[in-house]
Design brief:
The protein is of the alpha/beta class and about 240 residues long. The protein folds into three domains: about 45 residues, no CATH class; about 90 residues, Rossmann fold (3-Layer(aba) Sandwich), CATH 3.40.50; about 90 residues, P-loop containing nucleotide triphosphate hydrolases (Rossmann fold), CATH 3.40.50.300. Helices cover about 30% and strands about 25% of the residues. The protein is built from five helices and nine strands; from the N terminus they run E-E-E-H-E-E-H-E-H-H-E-H-E-E. Strands 1-2-3 form a three-stranded mixed beta sheet, with helices on one face. A two-stranded antiparallel sheet has the order 4-5. Helix 1 crosses helix 2. The radius of gyration is 25 Å and the shape is globular. The N and C termini lie far apart (about 85 Å).
């Protein structure tokens, strides 16, 4: 019986050129005759990962994109969390960390996210209050948006568990990163900004909004109606 062909020897494998890029622990190689290499699968555990790329760049492993995303988000999460928690009473802000549970085998383990509110000692995320978890979640959401922007957000009463100070902080952050706010401050995300539709019952959110939309019930016709108010025409100078 003829044994199935298994390209396992070094002579049968396509040759690889020298390493062209170093991205953290990820080494990117250019591989000649990539189509004959497509049946191979690189597995771990390794201290370093190798992404296989054909001469024209086709076939790049998706994990390089995932690692790039993680490196960007983990590098900016603390900055975003500080912006959300900075206040006159806590000028030093809080701290947030996003890290791999196992750097040698990142795809076989999870990702840990820890946030330390201003003026508090380190605690596990499960021990934070509802409001503290909300601020941490918003910091992660906005940091992901900074890496890969979305056209708009819809936030449904995310401020329900926040106290007045944190509501004001979140409202101020959203205002500064909105399209209008970013145009006024070109240093904020390159002046691009984002759009948010936020459902809220907090006055601090209303005050920082660009427009208000109210919904009420028309009892005579048995339907809901809306009222809109453009606040940009009445903005304080």
């Amino acid at each position: 019986m003829t044994e199935p062909h298994c390209p396992s020897t070094a002579a049968e494998q396509p040759s690889a050129t020298t390493t062209t890029h170093d991205q953290g622990k990820i080494h990117r190689l250019e591989v000649d005759n990539f189509k004959s290499y497509k049946g191979f699968q690189v597995i771990g555990p390794f201290s370093d990962f190798t992404a296989i790329v054909g001469p024209n760049g086709a076939g790049k492993s998706n994990f390089m994109d995932a690692i790039n995303a993680f490196n960007n988000i983990s590098g900016n999460i603390d900055k975003t969390y500080k912006e959300l928690t900075k206040s006159n009473t806590h000028p030093l802000c809080g701290q947030a960390y996003l890290y791999l549970e196992n750097e040698d085998d990142p795809f076989l383990h999870g990702i840990r996210y820890n946030a330390m509110p201003p003026g508090q000692r380190y605690r596990d995320m499960e021990l934070l209050s509802g409001g503290e978890k909300t601020v941490a979640a918003l910091a992660l959401l906005f940091t992901i948006h900074r890496y890969k922007p979305s056209p708009f957000f819809i936030l449904d009463e995310v401020d329900a568990a926040l106290d007045n100070l944190n509501v004001a902080n979140v409202a101020g952050f959203i205002r500064s990163k909105s399209c209008e706010g970013a145009r006024a401050n070109q240093d904020a995300d390159g002046g691009s900004g984002f759009q948010i539709i936020q459902i809220s019952q907090k006055d601090s959110i209303y005050y920082k909004a660009e427009a208000l939309v109210g919904v009420y019930r028309d009892s005579e016709r048995g339907c809901s109606r809306t009222l809109s108010f453009d606040l940009t025409k009445h903005r304080e100078s």
